Amino acid sequence: MDRERPSGIMPFPDTGSFEMKIGDRHYLVMILQIMLDVLKLYYDDFGSVGVDGVYDEATEAAVKTYQKICGLDPTGCVDCATWNRLAEEFNAAIYENQ
């Protein structure tokens, strides 16, 4: 029986105004933390990131590491480009491990 690919995490439209940073508290931060937690299985440099919806120092450090690995500007803030790259890799990782 063929499995249908899950829809996964959706990319953000390139509006130029999307950003997550230290101090933000939102369900999107929780989704970000889940994506980072899954992707740390593929990248040795990630530290432990809690999944609590608070964009703290540990989340920022993991984002900076991810941005450096991917050749993105390591600001520690999540913009559309960072989110979309994370979503793409997260979706691929989830699909591979079904």
Characterization of this structure:
This protein has one domain: Muramoyl-pentapeptide Carboxypeptidase, domain 1 (Orthogonal Bundle). The mean pLDDT is 85. The longest helix has 17 residues. It is built from three helices and two strands; from the N terminus they run βααβα. The chain has a two-stranded antiparallel ribbon. By secondary structure, the protein is mainly α. The protein is globular, with a radius of gyration of 13 Å.
Please write out the topology:
Layout (H helix, E strand, L loop, with lengths): L18 E2 L6 H13 L17 H14 L7 E2 H17 L2
Helix pairs in contact: 1-3
Record keyword descriptors for this entry.
45% helix, 3 helices, two-stranded antiparallel ribbon, mainly alpha, 98 residues, globular, Muramoyl-pentapeptide Carboxypeptidase, domain 1
